[in-house]
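Notes on consecutive records. When two proteins share a document, each keeps its own sequence and its own token line. Never mix them. Below: protein one.
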Amino acid sequence: MTTATHPYDALMDITARPKAVFVRGAGSYLWDDSRKRYLDFVQGWAVNCLGHSPPAVAEALAAQARRLLTPSPAFYNEPSLKLAQALVESSAFDQVFFANSGAEANEGAIKLARKFGSLHKNGAFEIITFEGGFHGRTLATMSASGKKAFEPLFEPKVSGFKKAELNDIASVENLINGNTVAVMLEPIQGESGVWPATDQFLRELRALTEAHGLLLIFDEIQTGMGRTGKLFHYEHTGIAPDIMTLGKGIGGGVPLAALLATERASCFEHGDQGGTFNGNPVMCAAGLAVLEEVGKPDFLKQVGETGLLLECELQKVSVRHGLGGVRGRGLLLALDLRLPIAPGIVAQAFEAGVLLNAPQLDTLRFMPALNVAKAEIAEMIGCLDEILTKAGAARRVA
């Protein structure tokens, strides 16, 4: 479709999109080309951790763009060195590889695990992942994912991924054999509807992988960078994985991701891994700005408090309308609707100027900016409440 203003047909049609064209963003709000304002509780799927066009990120991008865009990854650049050091100092890891997307970071984690297996585990290459998991859209990360919709696509898949059940340690143990090199999972499965691994399960998983000499990989693409009230989700558990991937929030809105590993797991040799834009100084300058903001005193405490407020308000909505529970942690939450009405609610909210996400037909997912205001939470809850009230009245009439 082409209108007088926008040639929609020039873009590949790979997903259903409303016809609104967004032209400006600030904090928790977006504006389209008709000047309509939208309250955004999706934020690019947890990408804009500081909201739309945060001044700290915009200023860092502009300043770095004036200095150096890229010298190529064949050379060091200052922002990538600084961001790598800051991430190491803030985490349990020793080395960092920068990438452009979460899928690329996860692809790197898979390659690193297989390299480890070739060097230290007699060629072991299998990685245990989980039903319902989502790790990206490359062939390998789709193969690692446990998303049912991926199963018939782009066959043949990459082999070497066995699927266990989340929060069932026996299902993991039963899959371990001489070819197993690692276990990989999201601490909270986002795409399948915000299903958390329990802290106890993650501790059991750490003990099991250590007992068998396996690597433990946390995909923190969505849970990392403060989303759950800690800088990294693994900090809630008292254990640490061998490898962790970051994406989405680490760039605050620009394409940036990272693969972090302990010294033991860091076994890439020259030529094993690379990429034209990996460690790009402009993107890393944005990452440094994000980390500085998220690392400010009381920022993560505020995320935890705001997350509890949002959870409490969603629970009240659930009680008022006879819905299911609220799942998740911090500012990554889901509301179980118990009925396949989520897409309809998302569409009605869009018309009312509120952006929501439906990862499943019966589930709404909430991923606001980490600095979302209490008044903005109240505005979203009011909109959702009104939609559900109308839907309930319609059902009663029917």
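Protein two starts on the next line and is unrelated to protein one.
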Amino acid sequence: MQALKVATVPMHVKSMDQYVLVDKEAYNKLLDQSLLGRSWIMDDLRDRCGNKSIKWIKENILENPKYSRQIGRMEQQGQIIHKGRGSAWKFKASVMAEFLESHWEELPW
């Protein structure tokens, strides 16, 4: 018989006394997949967009007039960092992932 190591993971529930038990390997996998506290560079964003080109990402997301207010707000809040033409892009992963999720159906995949 093999003993399982488990961890208690608090879930978003109304009562703080409700928890879910998961094995340690699954918990570590969840931590690895979490976007909290992570940043992306352009290659990470390209990967999340199905390896679309940088040109496609700029035209359809970052420089798209439809999203200019939202992208501008993310830049002002430091969630997207870009110093200008030719400089590297950096994205707050959790915010950018949420943006992609909320606009998924609108993008010309």
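For the record: Residues 93-103 form the longest helix (11 residues).
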